[in-house]
DNA sequence: ACACCATACCGTACATGTACGGAAAGAATT
DNA sequence: AATTCTTTCCGTACATGTACGGTATGGTGT
C-alpha cells in the first residue's frame, strides 16, 4: 500500500518523539538525572510544557524511553562478550548485566525498580520480554546451555531464576552502596556461580507447576 | 542523672514526632499511599505545612518511619514462626519475609528499593543492620544453622546472599506483577530451596575476600 | 465551496515538595 | 533584670508534574 496521509503523519509524530528523546538525553548528560524536567525539555525543543504530553503519557514514560535506549546498548555489549562454552557465555550475560546496572543505576532503576501497574500500551508480557533485548539474550543463552546438556529443564524457568538472582544482587548493590558487600563484581560472580552450581545439578520444571516437595 | 530540661525537651520532641507518625499512618489507611502529603499531614495535627520539617528531614523520612513500624511487625511475625530444625526456621524467615513484602509492597519499596545515598543520621551500616529487626533475625537464624553444622562458613556472608536472593525474588514479584512467575509463594520457595541447597554443600568465605577461582 | 472534525499545540490553574528567612518564646548567660 | 542564644513554628515563594479546556490548522466528506 502507498504511504497514505495517515502513515506520513504517524511517521512525523515518531520523528518528533525521538527528537524529544534525544533532547532529553542531552539534558540528562548536561545536568544530571534530576535536571530533566518537563519544562526544560519543552523549552529545549521550542514547545510549551504541556505539548510534551502529546508524545509521552507522563514523565515516567520519558524516563522509560531513555532507559530503553540504554538497554539496547547493553544488549549489544553483551553480544560482544560471548564464548564457545555456553556456560561461560551465560556467565558473561550476568557479568555485563551487572556492570551495566552498576554503571547506569538510574536507567536500571526506571526499568526494573518502578512498579509496572499497567503494561505500556497494551503489550503482553511476552512483548515486554521480547522488548527487552537483554532479557532476550539471556533466554537464548540459557537455551544454548540446555541444548548442550549443561543445564536441564525449562529455559524460561531457568532464565527467570537467574534473573531474580541477578536482579536481587544488583539492586541491593545499587540501593545500599555502603553495605559491606565487598567488591561488587566479586559479589555478583559469587551469586552467579552459586545459582548456576545448583541449577546444573537438577532438572528445572516450568514455572507454572508447583514444586513437589512439601 | 536526673531528667534535665534537655532530656525533657527531647522526650517531648519524640512524642510529637510519633504523634505525626501516627497521623501519617491513619492518613495512609484512609486515603491510600499517595494520599499522604505534607500539607494534609500538617493540617491533621494542626501545624503549618513547614513545621513538619522540624521533625522529619523530608517526605522520604516520613515514609521511612512508617516502614520501620511495619518491619517491626514483620520481625514479630517471623519470631512466631520458628522450628526446632534450624534450616526450617531459616526457611520460615524467607517465607514470612516474602509474605510481608508481597502484602506490604509500599513499605517494602521505601525500605529496600529507594537509594540510600546517605545513611540516616550518622548511623553506620551495622546500626542499620541491627536497626532492621528482620535482618537481625535472619542473621541469628543463619548462625543457628552454622552452629548446628547445617551450613558452614561466614554467617554474615550467608545471610547477605540469602538476602540478595530473597530480595531479588520479592522485588521482581512486586515490580512485574503480570510476569508469569506462577504462584508467588511457590516461586519464593523454589528460589529459597535453590539457594539453601547449594549453600549447604559448600563453605562460604567472608564477603571481603575475593573468591579464589578466577 | 462549505461545513465538519481530528489533531497539535498552548495557557491557565492547581497540588505538591521544599528552600529561605523571619518571628516568637523560652533558656542560658551576664 | 537585661541580654543573648537556641529552638520551634510559620508565611511566603518557587519549581515541578499534570489536569482541563481552548484554539488553530489542516484534512475529509458533502
From TrEMBL, chains A, B:
> Per its UniProt entry, which superkingdom is the organism in?
Bacteria
Q: Which residues bind DNA?
A: 37-56
* InterPro entries attached to this UniProt entry: Homeodomain-like_sf, HTH-type_TetR-like_transc_reg, HTH_TetR, MT1864/Rv1816-like_C, Tet_transcr_reg_TetR-rel_C_sf
Looking at the keywords, is Nuclease present?
no
Which residues span the membrane? Answer: none
What Gene3D superfamilies does the database record attribute to this sequence? Tetracycline Repressor, domain 2
The reply on keyword Transcription regulation is yes
Q: Domain HTH tetR-type: where? A: 14-74
Query: Keyword annotations for this protein?
Result: DNA-binding, Transcription, Transcription regulation
Q: Name one Pfam family in it.
A: TetR_N
Which GO terms of the molecular function aspect are on file? DNA-binding transcription factor activity; transcription cis-regulatory region binding
PANTHER family from the xrefs?
HTH-TYPE TRANSCRIPTIONAL REGULATOR RUTR (PTHR30055), TETR-FAMILY FAMILY TRANSCRIPTIONAL REGULATOR (PTHR30055:SF212)
Q: What is this protein called?
A: Transcriptional regulator, TetR family
Please name the source species.
Mesorhizobium qingshengii
Amino acid at each position: 500500500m502507498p504511504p497514505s496521509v495517515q502513515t506520513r503523519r504517524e511517521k512525523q509524530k515518531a520523528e518528533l518523539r525521538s527528537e524529544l528523546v534525544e533532547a532529553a538525553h542531552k539534558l540528562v548528560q548536561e545536568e544530571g538525572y534530576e535536571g530533566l524536567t518537563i519544562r526544560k525539555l519543552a523549552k529545549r525543543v521550542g514547545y510549551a510544557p504541556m505539548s510534551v504530553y502529546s508524545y509521552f503519557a507522563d514523565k515516567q514514560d520519558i524516563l522509560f524511553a531513555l532507559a530503553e535506549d540504554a538497554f539496547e546498548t547493553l544488549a549489544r555489549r553483551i553480544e560482544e562478550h560471548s564464548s564457545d562454552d555456553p556456560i561461560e557465555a551465560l556467565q558473561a550475560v550476568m557479568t555485563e548485566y551487572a556492570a551495566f546496572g552498576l554503571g547506569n543505576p538510574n536507567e536500571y532503576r526506571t526499568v526494573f525498580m518502578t512498579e509496572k501497574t499497567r503494561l505500556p500500551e497494551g503489550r503482553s508480557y511476552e512483548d515486554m520480554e521480547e522488548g527487552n533485548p537483554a532479557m532476550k539474550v539471556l533466554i537464548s543463552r540459557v537455551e544454548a546451555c540446555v541444548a548442550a546438556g549443561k543445564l536441564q529443564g525449562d529455559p524460561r524457568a531457568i532464565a527467570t531464576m537467574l534473573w531474580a538472582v541477578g536482579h536481587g544482587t544488583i539492586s541491593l548493590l545499587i540501593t545500599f552502596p555502603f553495605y559491606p558487600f565487598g567488591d561488587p563484581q566479586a559479589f555478583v560472580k559469587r551469586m552467579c556461580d552459586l545459582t548456576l552450581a545448583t541449577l546444573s545439578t537438577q532438572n528445572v520444571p516450568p514455572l507454572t507447576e508447583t514444586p513437589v516437595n512439601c
